[in-house]
Amino acid sequence: MINLQKGQKIDLTKTNPNLAKLMVGLGWDATENSGGGGGLLKNLLGGGSKTEIDCDASVLLLNDKGKLAKNENLVYFGNKTSPCGSIRHSGDNITGHGDGDDEQIQVDLNRIPKDVHRLVFVVNIYKCVDRKQHFGMIKNAFIRVVNSANNEELCKFNLSDNYAGKTALIAGEVYRHNNDWKFAALGEATTDPGLEALTRRYL
What we know:
- The chain has helices spanning 39-44, 128-131, 195-199; strands at residues 2-4, 9-11, 21-30, 55-62, 74-75, 87-89, 103-108, 118-125, 138-147, 152-158, 168-177, 180-190.
- It is mainly β.
- The strands form two sheets. It has a six-stranded mixed sheet with strand order 1-10-9-3-7-6, with no helix packed on it.
- β11 (168-177) and β12 form a beta hairpin.
- Residues 36-49 have low confidence and may be disordered.
């Protein structure tokens, strides 16, 4: 397994020539005292020190121009399977509780249409404006790529930058290069208030 730094890339299929199916896992935890307000009184009254933060992982299937050619090529908790059947979303985890992956996306490389060149994996905070939440309230965020055939973790990217004030993350991408599939660790943050605004960047 290879730990990647921001901006690094890895060739997935050159070292794994029979690679056909991937599991892309994304995880995160809320920091302690991420709720804001309440203080001692809140603790005395039994309020927990952690606020529920609902992060949502999604993937955009982009063409060779880096554009989302059709709305159905956005896979998220409301559209869990791509039209081609190559991408399947595990479903929404609304709390981020527990160890390991919070949400998983299954990728069948052999079923990805020829006109899809990039799979961009993003995470946004649901209702971040209403709840006054941002990624400075999140810790231990990561994206990892696993060979589904043998559960071997091929690479992992810990999103350890200071993302205070940011409400969406462009975590990483799986993309075609000649006849190979590669992964790039992006770790780019935005202030987009939701998935719709984030998706507009690719229209």
